[in-house]
Write the C-alpha cells for this entry.
Amino acid sequence: MKKSLWMVGLVFVLALVFSMNLFAQTEKAQYIGAAKCKMCHTAKAKGEAHPIWSKSKHASAYATLGTEEAKAVGKKAGIDDPQKSSKCLKCHVTAYDAPATAKAATYKMEDGVTCETCHGPGSLYQSMKVMKALAAGTQDHAAVSYNPGDLKSCVKCHNQESPTYKPFKAEQDWKQIAHPTPKG
Ligand code: HEC
Ligand code: HEC
Ligand code: HEC
Ligand code: HEC
C-alpha cells in the first residue's frame, strides 16, 4: 500500500518536472522561416519587405551553393558538396549553427539568408500584438528575441572569409535590399 503511494508521488513529481521543462522550451524563440512573415509584409503600403527579400540574392543563397560555380569554388577548398558543408552553409543559410530545438517545423535551409538572420528568430514576435507593440516602442526587444536590424552586422558574412569576396560597403549595398515602411 505504502509502496504504491510512493509510486504515485514519484510519477506526479516527474510529470511536473517534465511539463515545466517543456514550458521552458516553448518560451525560447525559434526560427520559423520567411513564409511566416509573408502575409503581413507583402503589401506595397506596408513596405513590401517580403517581395523585396524574395527577389534578392539572400533568398537564393542556399540554391547558389548547388550551382556549378559553387562546386568549382568548393573543390578548391576540398569540399565535394557545398550544400552539405558547414564551411559554406554558415554564411548562406540563416541560423545554420543553431541547435535543432531552436528551429520550428516551418524552418527551411532552402530559404537561404532570411529576415530572421537580421531580425532574430520570429516565434515570439510574429503575432500582430507584439509586432504593433514593437513598432510603437512599447515592447522590450530582448524579451521576444527581436532585432530591429543594423548595418554593422552585415560583415559577419560580407568579409574576406567568403571565397568569392567582393568589396562591401554597407551603406551603399544596403540600397539594393532596403525595405522601408512608407510613412503616413
Ligand atoms: C500578423 C502579422 C505580422 C506577422 C506575421 C509579422 N509581422 Fe512584422 N509587423 C507587423 C505590423 C502590423 C508591424 C507594424 C508596422 C506597421 O504598422 O506597418 C510590423 C513591423 C515589423 C518590423 C518593424 C518594427 C518597428 O520597430 O517598427 C519588423 C522589422 C518586422 N515587422 C519584421 C517581421 C518579421 C521578420 C516577421 C517574420 C518572422 C514578421 N515581421 C511577421 C505585422 C506582422
Ligand atoms: C548570414 C550571412 C549574411 C548576412 C548577415 C548578410 N548577408 Fe548579404 N549576402 C549573403 C550571401 C551568402 C550573399 C550571396 C548570395 C548569392 O549570391 O546567392 C549575399 C548577397 C548580398 C547582396 C547581393 C550582392 C550581389 O553580388 O549582387 C547584397 C546587396 C547584400 N548581400 C547586402 C547585405 C547587407 C546590406 C547586409 C546587412 C544589412 C547583409 N547583406 C547581411 C550573406 C549575408
Ligand atoms: C540582410 C538583413 C535583412 C534582411 C534579410 C531583412 N531585413 Fe528587415 N531590416 C533590416 C535593417 C538593417 C533594417 C533597418 C533599416 C533602417 O533602420 O533604416 C530593417 C528594417 C525592417 C522593417 C522596418 C522598416 C521601417 O521603415 O521602419 C521591416 C518591417 C522589416 N525590416 C521587415 C523585414 C522582413 C519581413 C524581412 C524578410 C521578408 C526582412 N525585413 C529581411 C535588415 C534586414
Ligand atoms: C564568410 C561568409 C561566407 C562563407 C564562409 C561562404 N560564402 Fe559564399 N558568399 C558570401 C557572400 C557575402 C557572398 C556575396 C558577395 C561575395 O561574393 O562576397 C557569397 C557569394 C557566393 C557565390 C556567388 C558568387 C557570385 O559571383 O555571385 C558563390 C558561388 C558562393 N558564395 C559559394 C560559396 C561556397 C562554395 C562556399 C564554401 C566553400 C562559400 N560560398 C562560403 C559569404 C560566404
Summary: The CA atoms of residues 6 and 76 lie 64 Å apart.
